[in-house]
Amino acid sequence: MHKELANAIRFLSIDAVEAAKSGHPGMPMGMADIAVALWKYTLKHNPQNPTWFNRDRFVLSNGHGSMLLYSLLHLTGYELSIEDLKNFRQLGSKTPGHPEFDIDIGVETTTGPLGQGIGNAVGMALAEKMLASRFNHDDGLQPIDHFTYTFLGDGCLMEGVSHEACSFAGTHGLGKLICFYDQNGISIDGEITNWFTDNTSQRFESYGWQVLEIDGHNVEETLEAIRIAQKDTERPTLVCCKTIIGFGSPNKSGTSGVHGAALGEDEVKKTRDELGWEHEPFHIPDDIKSEWNCKDEGAKLNASWDQLMMEYSKKHPKSFDELTRVINNELPINFENSYRDFINELSVGDQKDLATRKASELCLNYFCEKLPELIGGSADLTGSNNTFSSVSTEMLPDNPKGNHIFYGVREFGMTAMTNGMVLHGGIKPYSGTFLVFMDYARNAVRLAALMKIPNILVYTHDSIGLGEDGPTHQPIEQLVTLRATPNLNNWRPADIIETAVSWKEAICSKDTPHTLILSRQNLPFIERSKGQIEMIEKGGYLLSSDDKADITLISSGSEVKLIIEAAKTIAKEGLKANVVSMPCLDKFVSQDKAYRDSIINPEIPKLVVEALHPNSWHCLVNLNDVVIGMETFGESAPGDELMNEFGFTVNNIVTQVKKLTVK
Predict the structure, then answer these.
(1) Is residue 119 helix, strand or coil?
(2) Which of 136, 214, 212, 210 is nearest to 174 (CA)?
(3) Are 428 and 331 in contact (CB under 8 A)?
(4) Please, which residues bridge with residue 399 across strands?
(5) In whole angstroms, how far apart are CA 209 and each of 173, 202, 270?
(6) CB-based contacts of 255-261 (< 8 A; 24+ apart in sequence)
(7) Which of 122, 435, 465, 494 could be a cystine partner for 165, CB 3.0 to 4.6 Å?
(8) For residues 412 and 440, is the Cβ–Cβ distance under 8 A?
(9) Residue 349 and residue 328: Cα distance in Å, rounded?
(10) 561, 524 contact by CB (below 8 A)
């Protein structure tokens, strides 16, 4: 029966790719036998409840082979019909070329950009270990107990992010992570022996992984490897599976020709003959359907966990309530009232000049205490990013209960892992690095936005104001690229109040990731009314205004203090200015036109000041308006000197105002 179960996967994949005249049939054909071992006999999941929290997680890192996953989801009983498979890669279908994330039909995450899936899987396995250490009890009541399984290919292992994530996984002994490496020796350009000759087994052994080698077309051998992997809870496992890409195709198997193109009508017919599949396209015989269907077994597994949770609620009611809260992604009772009290305390306290990175740390002292699920981390810049709060404890290989993770110098891996932690659920991760090093993690940031998952990304040292480290460390174009990313809110606060609001917005987000862009240098506290504080969440608001204003001055972050002083200076010369703080341009432009016009008068000139590339602001300014920004790289010098050198001074702002307003 194994052969027939595997062939059902192969031919659903072949037929869907053939119907679309587009896709990647080779991987599903080659990994079908491994999929039988995992999905038919091992995976703990419930097709009728895809969000069951204690399910095993499955990540398809080599996501170009997405038809393998769609076939499995259809066969095992998820809400994915034959018609959906027939609409593979068509507009508006449930079956895009790379599904990324769709938990309603069972897609945990399936990466298009290779290597990120294994990074996500490491994050999922880490989340499971951290939650288990917090909620499982010695009396045998262990509500968090599941594995993370991953399929990956040569391309995933060539991508550097796989090294970052897998090295971390070995150090932290993520024994419930089991990865199946499709070792078929083929990538798009052909046989990989000319460009990828790593000894993968030794590489992963050096990370501290268990490495097994099997025939990927032998189901029994695969099942034995899974049993061995599950027993070793101290090490993650890489199962190296020797396979033939396009298995069963007489003329294209073992070649790059079957990697990323439909087989063609003639080759499909020959493959049907070769594998003895005597059925029409998209037809699965009833006996094979019955064997594959996992609904009843999944319901039993889910019901057993529900029963465990009932007992857990009686013996450990506080743990049960807290676990239920974080699973449901709910804020604690009275959180909103507590937050308002926190903001009020910040507003009336003894204020002093403060870098927003330090303001962020002070905010984390509050938020991490109120939200134990808020798990921090930094890419070897903890002291510089200020991600370690007063209630943080070190998460170490022998202390998974800690709530601050040391990611090492792994910006890309860190962001891919935190994406995986968000996808897993039960944890709200935040991570830190310098804004300029966001470039290393850029693609994972993009995927967070694309998947609509609320990751929190802390980026400090946000401009030339960081000073002496020079242009390699001074961001110029990074915020432009972040603002250009759909479904990403980027906050550049001017002081501790705006920083607190930006943290609140990030923490409460359901489907949008947030970046917090923070200064190294100290910034002054800004006095505001209660009404102004309430407007911060709209992304932009008036700090001061005049019905007869001659100009609107707009800024974010460290330059807000400059436009406040400039407004005072020009007032002495009879010019009046509206002063706008714009901590989140993305949020502001999403407001209705009436609100935007009430903040930025469209009838008078505008001057924007921001010590970063000016292209972000074209959505607000006209051709005759002025943006004082950075269009060159910086220099190595003290921050104050650089601000003066590049024109971020009150005098320059006043000069530009006069040019715009004096007729």
Answers:
(1) helix
(2) 210
(3) no
(4) 396
(5) 8, 10, 41
(6) 255/186, 255/190, 256/186, 256/187, 256/188, 256/189, 256/190, 256/191, 258/25, 258/26, 258/29, 259/24, 259/26, 259/27, 259/186, 259/187, 259/188, 260/23, 260/24, 260/26, 260/64, 260/188
(7) 122
(8) yes
(9) 35
(10) yes
Q: For residue 382, how many C-alpha atoms fall within 13 Å in the half-sphere facing its CB?
A: 13
Using an 8 Å Cβ cutoff, are 546 and 451 in contact?
A: no
Tokens of 530: 């209660």
In order, the DSSP letters of 54-96 are TSPEEEESSGGGHHHHHHHHHHHT-S--HHHHHTTT-TT-S--
Q: Are 67 and 89 in contact (CB under 8 A)?
A: no
E strand segments, 340-425:
354-355, 374-378, 394-395, 404-406
Say which residue the tokens 């993690």 belong to: 441
pLDDT tier at 349, thresholds 50, 70, 90 = confident
330 is catalytic: no
What single DSSP character describes residue 174?
A: -
Type of residue numbered 18 = E
Closest CA to 538 of 596, 494, 594: 596
Q: What is the pLDDT of residue 425?
A: 98
Q: Are 108 and 59 in contact (CB under 8 A)?
A: yes
Burial 415-429, CB ≥16 within 10 A → b, else e: bbbbbbbbbbbbbbb
Handedness of CA 39, 157, 203, 175 (dihedral sign): negative
Cα end-to-end distance, the chain, whole Å: 86
Which domains does the chain possess?
Answer: 2-299 (3.40.50.970), 335-523 (3.40.50.970), 537-661 (3.40.50.920)
pLDDT of 663 over the 80 cut: no
User: Closest Cα partner for 440 from 190, 119, 22?
Assistant: 119
Q: What's the whole-number average pLDDT of the chain?
A: 97
637's tokens: 């010098």
Q: Are the beta carbons of 61 and 121 closer than 8 angstroms?
A: yes
276-321 pLDDT per residue, tens: 999 999 999 999 999 999 999 999 999 999 999 999 999 999 999 9
- Give pLDDT tens digits for 17-72: 999 999 999 999 999 999 999 999 999 999 999 999 999 999 999 999 999 999 99
> Each residue of 104-128: pLDDT tens digit?
999 999 999 999 999 999 999 999 9
Sign of CA dihedral 237, 238, 240, 244: positive
Active-site option among 108, 267, 373, 411 = 411
Tokens of 26: 């080779």
- Sign, CA dihedral 556-560-564-565, equals negative
Q: Once rounded to an integer, what is the mean pLDDT over residues 501-521? A: 98
Tokens in use for 117? 């899936």
CA-only gyration radius of the chain, Å: 28
Phi first, then psi, for residue 430 (nearest 5°) are -135, 150
d(CA 311, CA 578): 61
Token pair in block for residue 194: 């000319």
pLDDT digits (tens, 9 = 90+) for 402-453: 999 999 999 999 999 999 999 999 999 999 999 999 999 999 999 999 999 9
Residue 647 is predicted with a pLDDT of 98
